[in-house]
Amino acid sequence: MRHPSPLFELKQVSCRFNQVAALSQISLRIYPGERIALVGPSGAGKSTLLSLLNGTLAPSQGQVWVMGQNLAQARATSRRRVQRQIGMVYQQHHLIRNLAVIHNVNAGHLGYWPLWKAAWSLVWPLQVDQAAAALAQVGIADKLYARTDRLSGGQQQRVALARVLVQNPAVILADEPIASVDPERSRDIMDLLRHLSDTTGKTLVISLHEVDFARSHCDRVIGLREGKLRFDCPVSAASDSLFRDLYALSGEPQAVELR
Ligand SMILES: Nc1ncnc2c1ncn2[C@@H]1O[C@H](COP(=O)(O)OP(=O)(O)OP(=O)(O)O)[C@@H](O)[C@H]1O
Ligand SMILES: [Mg+2]
Which atom of ligand 1 is found nearest the CA of 18? Predict the structure, then answer.
């Protein structure tokens, strides 16, 4: 049964960058606890959609409602309160490379800490136990004081996940979180995200090119192409041909794994 109030609601949303229609007339709702895969060929509008959901981008038309707030009209304080509940994971990790891991993990507090506390923490790390626990949860407990740029790509992605754990948001939006890690590490990261959602009820929206992971780790799949919503259905209803059409119809050939 579906939760009565959606976490996110897009009402007839369009997003233009100059002459490019990145998204056209998108309407959808996302409910608490859902695990959604966002799929579609390059340029389909996946990252744009995630940026609308986290409020870093405003729509050119239509409305984006997040946790009951119309983000474009919300006061800055309300918008920040909503944004604290949204954790982001990116392909490029967005970590500060020359700092110790603990500082990057503690960045998960930044939405809550005043500036003095954040600055002080760079000299003398605060909340060491919480950072250590988050790193243990993502399987790299021993890396607390390692320099971030000495870690492998997969380990850095785990640091990014630990930062999100410390932030403890209601929702995790992940933009191609496994695009820059090898297949084994990809499975680990996807398992971790899935585990987080299973154990804490966090809502996941993950943009992916790997159809098999969309199937195995998510419950709902949203297909975008050229800024338009092509399908939005439970994974059980998403057939091979649906995915094939989504990718095949685009101008560029895409490497899609289909069984
Ligand atoms: N900041 C921007 N300025 C201008 N055009 C943009 C900007 N961001 C995105 N676009 C355009 O909007 C469209 C959608 O881009 P988006 O990054 O959302 O696609 P995507 O589905 O995430 O693609 P990929 O799989 O390659 O990451 C593309 O045509 C892109 O060139
Ligand atoms: Mg993208």
Answer: 4
Name the 3-class secondary structure at 45. Answer: coil
Is the CB of residue 45 below 6 angstroms from any atom belonging to ligand 1? yes
Ligand nearest to the CA of 26: 1
Q: Which two tokens stand for residue 243?
A: 């995915």
How far is residue 23 from each of residues 7, 56, 70, 231, measured CA to CA in Å?
20, 15, 18, 14
Residue 62: its H or E element: strand 61-66
CA angle (204, 115, 177) in 5-degree steps: 25
Which DSSP category does 94 fall into?
T
Q: What confidence tens digit (pLDDT) does each residue in 123-175 have?
A: 566 678 889 999 998 889 999 999 999 998 889 989 999 999 888 999 999 99
Cβ of 46 closer than 6 Å to ligand 1, yes or no, is yes
Ligand nearest to the CA of 16: 1
